[in-house]
Design goal:
Elements (H helix, E strand, L loop, with lengths): L1 H33 L5 H8 L3 H7 L3 H24 L4 H18 L1 H8 L7 H22 L9 H14 L10 H12 L15 H8 L10
Helix pairs in contact: 1-2, 1-4, 4-5, 4-7, 5-6, 5-7, 5-8, 5-9, 8-9
Length: 222
């Protein structure tokens, strides 16, 4: 009897792992297509499980988001590290900004997680903090080299990149690479040799975070 029970326990654990993997795969697809407020019920249906099973594995939306997008955020951190290793500071910055734009253009969930805060002790927020520090170092190298215009700051660059990707969102089904042209225009605007005086001051980071964080609509019902 104990052997039968052991086999049954192994099967239950295997089924639980399979269910968790299916939920994560479905969440990645729905978050990429619809953003982080995608319906959890729709995710459960796509995974072939009940909403109760989804909650058994991920009791909150934040936990599901963290598990589903963590690898993508870590990929962006590793890309920033590789960009810092590029000898030319401007080339390294361009490489990373272009990669960020490409991820955001392809994945609404990645766009959302760049501006949405999860609990500060969550793995994804810790990864984002590391990525933010690396991004600041990329900018500082470009400033120090004289290649990045000195009158812009991190919030300027972040807002410009976000706005370019969001502005081309509606044309993406017909012209999926339209964002590339606009990112190239953005990059030329950041070159020090082409700079003209800018009006006003850059946004402070808290104001930028509030402006870029979706306020409405509320998450879709489960």
């Amino acid at each position: 009897m104990s052997e039968v029970r052991a086999v049954a326990d192994r099967q239950r654990r295997r089924d639980a792992r399979d269910n968790r993997d299916r939920v994560l795969a479905a969440a990645r697809r729905h978050f990429a297509a619809e953003g982080l407020d995608a319906s959890l019920s729709a995710i459960a249906r796509a995974a072939g499980v009940s909403i109760g099973t989804l909650y058994n594995h991920f009791p909150t939306r934040d936990l599901l988001i963290d598990a589903a997008l963590r690898d993508l955020v870590l990929d962006s951190v590793r890309h920033a590290e590789r960009s810092l290793a590029v000898p030319d500071p401007w080339t390294g910055l361009v490489n990373h900004l272009t990669a960020l734009a490409q991820w955001q253009a392809a994945d609404r969930g990645f766009t959302d997680i760049c501006v949405r805060s999860l609990p500060p002790d969550s793995p994804i927020e810790q990864a984002k903090s590391e990525g933010h520090q690396l991004f600041q170092r990329l900018l500082q190298r470009a400033w120090d080299s004289g290649q990045l215009r000195p009158d812009v700051d991190l919030t300027d660059v972040g807002l410009m990149l976000w706005s370019v990707v969001r502005a081309t969102e509606t044309v993406r089904p017909l012209a999926p690479d339209a964002w590339r042209r606009h990112v190239a225009i953005l990059l030329d605007a950041l070159r020090a040799e082409a700079a003209h005086p800018l009006p006003g001051a850059p946004l402070d980071p808290d104001t930028l975070r509030v402006a870029m964080t979706p306020q409405a609509p509320a998450p879709k019902p489960i």
